[in-house]
Each structure stands twice: as C-alpha cells, then as structure tokens.
Design a protein that fits this description.
This protein is an alpha/beta fold and 329 residues long. The chain has one domain (20-207, 265-319). Helix content is 24%, strand content 19%. The protein has nine helices and 13 strands. It has helices at residues 25-32, 78-83, 123-131, 163-171, 184-195, 222-229, 263-278, 290-295, 299-303; strands spanning 2-7, 13-18, 49-53, 71-75, 91-94, 114-118, 135-141, 176-178, 199-203, 250-254, 257-261, 283-285, 318-319. The strands form three sheets. Strands 12-9-3-4-5-6-7-8-13 form a nine-stranded mixed sheet. It has a two-stranded antiparallel sheet with strand order 1-2. Strands 10-11 form a two-stranded antiparallel sheet. Helix 5 runs parallel beside helix 7 (263-278). The protein starts with a strand and ends in a 10-residue tail after the last strand.
Length: 329
C-alpha cells in the first residue's frame, strides 16, 4: 500500500490508500496459475496449534515462547529473522505483490520450509522459490481491484463476477481467498482458520513501530525524515525509513505511552482484534503490541483511532467458489 496525505484541517491528515502496480496484478495472478499445483485445502490442520509470527519489533522478546506450537509460520521478513536465530520454522507466509519480496531482508534466501504464497505475488518470486525446489502451497489474497477497462468478459463469466474472481475460479483449483486486514498477519490468521488449526497464537503483530519513540515532527521537514530513520519498525532493527522517509505515519498516546503506526496497520490492528473477539480462545495475541494494548480499551476507544474509508472492500474470507468460511458448510 502507498499512502497519500491530504490536508484536512489544522493537525489533521486524511489518507487514501492505493495499491502499487495495480495494473499488473491481473497478469501476475494469471501467470502464477501454472505453478499452483497445490492449493490450500480446508480442515487439513485440525487438532494442531500454530504460532504465526509477524516481523514487528516485539517478536525479539517472544522467541522463547514460539516453540510450544505444532507449527510455526513466519510472515515475510520474519522468515530470515527467525532462521538466522536458529528458531524452528515450519512454514513461510507471503502476500506481498512486489519485487521487494526478493530483497535481502525478505525471501532472497530460501529455507527448507513449506511456503504459503498468494496467487497474486510477483511471478519472479514464485520462479525464485521453484528453482530452489521449495515446497509451495497457493491460496488467494483478495485484492478488490477494479476490472481492467480493456478486459473482454469471457462468455463463461457471469455479469456479476469480477475479473479478479474469474481468475481465481477459472484459472485455479478451488481454494480459499483471504481478505481480512491489509497486512500479512491477519490474512495468515484467516488462512490458519480455514485450515482448521485448533489454536492460533500470534506474535510480532505489532501493527506499529517500537513504542515510546520521540514525538512525531511535522511532515515534509528534515526533522521528519531524521525521525523516520530512527523509528524501529522491524524485529531486525530496520526502521520506518526502509521504504522512504516521507511515508504518512499516525501517532497516539495510550496510557502515557506513545505509539506510531501507518494507516494501513491501524486497519490491520482493528481486524486482528475482531478476529480475537470472534474466535475467542482460538486466536490469541501475544507481546507488547498496539493491538494487545487497544484491545482492552473497548470499541469506543478503537473508534477514536485513525481510520480510513473509501479504500475498497475488505470482505473477510471464504472458499473462492463459495462464501462460507466454515470448511464443513
């Protein structure tokens, strides 16, 4: 996601989210179909527990707690982070559509784990993993992008089916499409629910930078750029400036502690809390993270957190050919 600031009054910023490389995503989904020999299937993990690891700063303090689960999933850069620290990882999880996933802090190095990859990831990443003989299982990560104006609707495509859904249901075998939250961890939780895990333990899902950083300066100033370079956003120590020093950040002080986050991460924090509420006792958040802090504050507090509208549908998850999220339905 990219963030574009729109002045909305003194001290206020509205943000509109857009999807990078949006015009090429349909081609990516279509190109990956030939590699999708194995699709995620419902109920295959019943009776098991999983630790899902985001790459947030709090993951560093949770390493000793990860190994009580049957499986350990590492999202994005959490994979090399955990492997470099001799942690047991059984699965990697990725939904990012860009070539940045081939970078040295992401999946440039591959490991002998089972990779869960979204059908919309960059085909270069799929070829990279395939050439290294890594085990891949595909699923769909719902994007909600509008049809390409140049798309000619095939004769077998009903008028109410989008181009994205047509690709999922015609180019691939039946599987799940996850679409809750804007970042990897909440979508990984949705996949784990679909697979039937009895308990899903979530670590490193900070949805924020390391807390208690200095107060946010005014945007578009040299002070803001310097501040971004010191704002730790990842367990491996990378900062918010990793992808640029001009990104829009949000700030909140909760119980005397200062938190900084991106607008898309606020949406993911909301959705993680929703998942924990809906699946109480089955989905559990751990660590010193923004979602765990605000979860105890109630709905009215969450309503006061920075929120975004008009960014397309975020519609839950279910089989690509049906809408139920219950594998037995």
């Amino acid at each position: 996601m990219t963030d574009t600031p729109h002045p909305d009054g003194p001290g206020e910023v509205r943000c509109l989210l857009s999807m990078p490389n949006q015009s090429g995503l349909f081609a990516q989904i279509a190109a990956n179909a030939k590699y999708a020999k194995v699709m995620a299937a419902p109920g295959t993990a019943r009776g098991r527990t999983v630790s899902i690891c985001g790459a947030g700063p709090s993951l560093a303090a949770e390493l000793a707690n990860l190994q009580g689960s049957d499986d350990v999933w590492a999202c994005n850069s959490a994979l090399p982070y955990l492997m470099d620290r001799d942690q047991r990882v059984t699965h990697a999880f990725g939904i990012d559509q860009g070539e940045a996933m081939l970078g040295p802090d992401e999946w440039q190095r591959t490991f002998p784990v089972h990779y869960y990859v979204a059908s919309s990831v960059h085909p270069k990443l799929v070829r990279h993993l395939t050439r290294r003989h890594r085990r891949l299982t595909f699923f769909h990560s719902y994007l909600g992008i509008p049809d390409d104006p140049a798309w000619v609707r095939p004769a077998d495509c009903p008028p109410d089916v989008t181009q994205e859904m047509y690709l999922y249901t015609r180019k691939y075998q039946d599987s799940v499409q996850v679409g809750y939250g804007l970042n990897a961890v909440p979508r990984a939780v949705c996949l784990a629910l679909f697979l039937g895990y009895d308990q899903i333990r979530v670590y490193g899902a900070d949805c924020a930078c390391q807390p208690d950083a200095p107060k946010m300066p005014m945007m578009a100033t040299p002070e803001y750029a310097d501040w971004m370079r010191g704002l730790v956003m990842y367990a491996d120590g990378r900062t918010a400036a990793t992808y640029g020093t001009d990104a829009v950040m949000a700030e909140a002080v909760i119980d005397g502690r200062r938190w900084h986050t991106r607008p898309d991460m606020v949406i993911s924090a909301r959705h993680l809390i929703d998942l924990c509420t809906q699946y109480a006792g089955r989905v559990i958040l751990y660590g010193d993270t923004l979602p765990t802090v605000i979860a105890s504050k109630g709905a009215s507090f969450m309503d006061r957190m920075p929120a975004l509208t008009g960014v397309g549908q975020v519609t839950g998850f279910g089989n690509a050919a049906r809408t139920s999220l219950d594998p037995d339905a």
